[in-house]
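User:
Care to share a sequence and structure tokens?

Assistant:
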Amino acid sequence: MTTVKDIAARIHDAIDSGVRAAEDVHRSIAKLQLAPLDRIDVLAEPMQSVHELRDRSIGAIYGTIRDINRRVEKLTIELLA
């Protein structure tokens, strides 16, 4: 028998998969947009910092979304159980 916990977990997993897919697309697009600047010799070194900042920013945004998703799953189980 399917329980509230099972349903909440499935919804959480589906959202998490979607968030991870969106994050991957976001990272790919951001990388492509900056690639031409990487090929300019005088910008190569500063671009490393730009890439690190980009990766941290994207990671923080999607990490927050995943954290909210986990909290909603927990709250859903607590309220409906």
